[in-house]
What we know:
- Chain A has helices at 11-20, 27-37, 49-58, 82-106; strands at residues 25-26, 62-68, 74-80.
- By secondary structure, chain A is α+β, with helices and mostly antiparallel strands.
- Chain A has a single domain (11-107), classed as Orthogonal Bundle (Arc Repressor Mutant, subunit A), CATH 1.10.10.10.
- In chain A, strand 2 and strand 3 form a beta hairpin.
- The model of chain A has no long low-confidence stretch (mean pLDDT 84).
- Chain B folds into five domains: 2-72, no CATH class; 78-126 and 349-488, no CATH class; 131-340, no CATH class; 501-525 and 755-888, no CATH class; 539-754, no CATH class.
- In chain B, strand 2 and strand 3 form a beta hairpin.
- Chain B has 27 helices and 21 strands.
- Mean pLDDT of chain B is 85; it is low at 488-493.
- In chain B, helix 24 crosses helix 25 (806-839).
- Classes of the chains: A alpha+beta (113), B alpha+beta (888).
- Chain A binds chain B through residues 26-29, 45-48, 50-52, 54-55, 57-58, 69, 71, 73-76, and chain B through 9, 24, 26-28, 30-31, 33-35, 37, 56-60, 62-63, 66-67, 69-72.
Amino acid sequence: MTDQAQLLPGTLDLLILRAVSLGPLHGYGILLRIGQISANALLIEQGALYPGLFRLVRQGLLKANWGTSENNRKAKFYELTVAGRKRLEEETASWNRLAGAIAAALSPQPEEV
Amino acid sequence: MRVFDALRFRMATLFNRSRLRDEMEQELRSHIAHRADDLERQGMSRAEAERRARIEFGGREKYKEQMHAAQGGHFMETLWQDVRVSVRTLRKSPGFLTAAVLTLALAIAANAVVFSVLNAFLLRPLNVTHPNSLYQLQHANEASSYQSYPDYIDLRDRNRSFDSVMAFTADEVGLDTGEGDPSEVWIEEASGNYFDALGLEPFLGHFYHTSDEHGADSAPYIVLSYDYWHTHFHDDRGVVGRAVRLNRHPFTILGVAPKDFNGTLLFFNPAMFVPLVEHPVLGANDLTTRGDHWVFDVIGTLKPGVSEAQAVADLNGIGNSLMKAYPKDEKHMAFTLTRPGLYGDYLGRPVKAFMAGLMLLTLLILLAACANLGGLFAARAAERSKEVALRLALGSTRVRILRSLLTEAMLISLAGGAVGLAGSVALLRALTAWRPFVSWPIHLAVNPDANVYLVALLLALGSGLLFGAVPVRQVLHTNPYEVVKAGSGGSGRRRVTAREILLAAQIAICAVLVTASLVAVRGLVQSRRAAFGFDIDHTMLAEVDLSMAGYTGDRVAPMQKRLIKAMQSVPGAEAAALADAVPFGMGGGDAMIFPENAADLLPAHSIGSAYLFHVSPGYFRAAGTRLVGGRDFSWQDDKDAPLVAVVNGEFARRVFGSTANAIGRHFKLKDGTRIEVTGLAEDGKYSELAEEPQLALFIPILQAPNASTTLVVRAKDGTGNAAELLGAAMRSTLRGVDAAMPVVIETRANPLEVAMFGPRMATVSLGVLGLMGGLLSITGIFGMAAYSVSRRLKELGIRMALGAQRREVLAAALGRPVKVLAAGSTAGVVLGILAGKVLAYIVYQANAHDPLVLTGVVLAMALLGLVATWIPAQRALSVNPLVLLREE
């Protein structure tokens, strides 16, 4: 557990959007999917997921419907809206630019060698 | 659309709160169940798995709160919470609540009233179809619009810029409906195109039109105003077609004007409209003399697409050609265009300036109120600093705390605004119904409309934000740790703050106003006992319009004699006489007086101007004016006898040097007539109570015949309502002489009301302003004292514990506010005494050195201080050192 990285502010929304981009998921499913795609490297408090989900619904990036889960339980499923898919693409691109820039800045420079 | 959706969503979240809560609970529970399923699959028992899943999940309530916030439903919910809490806390301090609401209500009411008047006179368009294209054709060289009738016709027919050019003039005539006594009414004589050009539709019957006019006396028609029809014809729809008489000439009622139309002048509400071509029949002017500029006002509706400048050039072109064609009669024929409602710039400019000034003043009052309320709020925030610190320490955000303070401010501002607006609406209704002068159709239509409500609401909310913002810095700088540790200890500030100076200035202004209003009230009370130079308590006046009743030329003098005889025989009459005008009455003229030996009668050589009254024999006895020397007039002082006069003391002193040798001396009038002084009357007041001593000259009416007739009748020893009974007897006697003669009977004191109007209004305004200043000062001192007490509560407790007396505690707690009060009051009283000198021009015998006034001011200010410091003083005295020290 201690190996897990703290989330940077603002990245939870991006992870949620990414998680549901592959198909509708309920809250617990989203948590599992994030764990799966990040190889369990990120620490997410379970409850903290829900205010994020509600925020994204209000922004019109996600829509939610009640349905039945694989465990045969009632659950609320979230899926991307068109706006949500667009936002995911933008955010992904901008994140990659940022990550690339930071990585370049932190990598050993020739004069340091 | 998005805004609307968002709003609907918020409303939905507010009203479906419990359903949403259920749903959230369900979702979280579903999450925990799924997690437990997984754990169970890893080999845990179901119960163990569920317990574990719940622990892993964390504080469900906290997340639900956050979900709520994320959804946006939070705002309304916390607002509702804040409101409920605020209402509860406010109810715990009724003194604070009352002071705050009352202060704000007064300030808002003042603003609403002033804005409403401004709105009615300057912003609201006239009640006609195209108010914005309506202009007054004003003279370029002065703020007037009079023309002669031929000029009007030329302007109307030769211009190319106006759709229509209308003209009107006002007149007072005798109306005889055939039922009851004839009465005097104000009419508007308006050109034939008037109603059509203004785009009006009659309420009843029909209007007269241009096609009805065929020269003088060709259209004897009447259109009643709605108000007059309503009050005098009692909504009788049968009036259309009815024949009545104006100044004894037959007229036919055509119809009734629309309900809210009272002519195009805002203050002047005529009883009826009559064609302008009827003017020669009713008055003394004709339609053909080009040099006689009797037409009061000319207005026009500008053609669409024509600019004001083009129209002015057009009119000036006509004016130039008229001046060339009639050089003797036409002098100033250059024009400007102005708004017609206030007679162009004549009233428009002063009203604009006055209302702008007044609006600024009332806004300043509101600002001062906000400053004081800000002080009160700061005191409250300081009192609650411990609570605030505790809430901060427990994790509440500063924003949340500021919001609850602001909610309180908003609640107070809304309550104050509502109370203020209600008060102002009542006042405005009364103002609208008010007729300041009985004999003039002056009317102030200042009913509030939607604009007024909106402005009041905005001002209330704006001031709420303003005074609510005062304690913001205080809260933002609260350090919970320090406050809880140190308590609300006061730092002994000793320098004078801006707030104290502001407060002292307010108190000074308040003291000035209180002084001035007390001076004015004293002056008014005393003015009743002034030396008027005539009796005001036992005399009746009857104003008779002989020309309205058809008596002109040689028929006037015999009729006047008949009237005097008739009055002398009225039961209850002690003496009766006649004058063309009486002091303080309407009409009356003046005369320039020259010494007997004056070589040329240029105005520069005149000794002065004297009030001139033409009176019948016996006038002085009837009026109660004492003759100090010489003799009264007799019926022998007629045209064939030598010219004689009675003068007053001031006249004798100014013209002859003293009263002793005045009898038998001569003086001259401007036309060269030489008159002998045969009598000397006491000095008196003639048109204003506060006037300097004036010259007065009485001339026998038989030596200068005049149709204006006021009968002066003195009651036999006035007991109770003797004068009123006399009035009734006079009316029936006059009816016996000529039933068709318009008569106005009033007490001798009644015309004085007009003269008293100015001083009375000044007194009332000063009183209202003084009251406002007083309330503002009270809240100001209250706020400061409360703040001072709550900051030094601990110090006071320690002092008490060490054995300080109540007096010492009070001195420590309230010393500073009381000092500010004393300084402000002293400055105010000094200024007030100086202002009293200015006041003496308006109010009779206004004297600020009056010990009664000074005592009154000191008492008023002391009372004000007592009221303002009562609650804080109680608080300071009730400090229980034990409780206080334990709390720390």
